[in-house]
Design goal:
The chain is an alpha+beta fold. The chain folds into 2 domains: 42 residues, 3-Layer(bba) Sandwich (FAD/NAD(P)-binding domain), CATH 3.50.50; 101 residues, no CATH class. Helices cover 25% and strands 14% of the residues. It is built from 3 helices and 7 strands. The strands form 3 sheets. Strands 3-4-5 form a 3-stranded antiparallel β-sheet, with no helix packed on it. A two-stranded parallel ribbon has the order 1-2. Strands 6-7 form a two-stranded antiparallel ribbon. A hairpin with a 2-residue loop joins strand 3 and strand 4. Helix 1 packs parallel to helix 3.
Length: 172
């Protein structure tokens, strides 16, 4: 997203053992794990350094909510159809609790916008959330459809379907 909005350069670092190996646009480079930050200089596991203006920390989709009561915490693997969330958003056991952005992301900003609008409309009473049985059935259906996915292309179409950009025939 930073590249799209005009950053002069972007350095991506992560805790994987190997680089992702994508053909990044020329402004983007991928380096091994960040080891140290001193003032505006970042040093990486391979000894390389870069001067930065900002650091954006991403947790890597580790669902970890120690500040919430245990019975309200999301326990789900990093997946496109997270467990316990109706429509990927509404807590199955408490329809007044919402989790946004918990999916493995392919559309990021579009998905966040669609989720925010949906939750807004639920809160404002424009969308009715069904009973618990229907919420559970929705989660089971979403998980089953994700389990049938055969690769990144299918994942992209699955999530595109959720935000209205995908081809429904990919999931039927």
């Amino acid at each position: 997203m930073s590249w799209k909005y005009g950053s002069k350069s972007i350095t991506i670092s992560h805790r994987r053992d190997t680089l992702l190996g994508y053909r990044w646009p020329e402004k983007i480079k991928e380096v091994p794990l960040l080891q140290k930050v001193e003032k505006n200089t970042c040093t990486f596991k391979d000894g390389s350094t870069v001067a930065v203006d900002a650091i954006i920390l991403s947790t890597g989709y580790l669902h970890y909510f120690p500040f919430m009561a245990k019975e309200l915490r999301l326990y789900s693997a990093n997946r496109v159809a997270p467990a316990s969330l109706y429509k990927g958003l509404v807590w199955v056991d408490n329809p007044k609790l919402f989790y946004l952005g918990m999916q493995d992301q392919w559309y990021t900003i579009n998905m966040f916008d669609a989720q925010a609008w949906y939750v807004r409309d639920v809160i404002m009473g424009r969308i009715d959330v069904p009973d618990r049985d229907a919420r559970v059935a929705d989660v089971e259906d979403r998980v089953a459809r994700e389990d049938a996915i055969r690769g990144d292309d299918d994942s992209i179409h699955y999530q595109g379907d959720c935000v209205g950009t995908g081809r429904r025939d990919r999931l039927s």
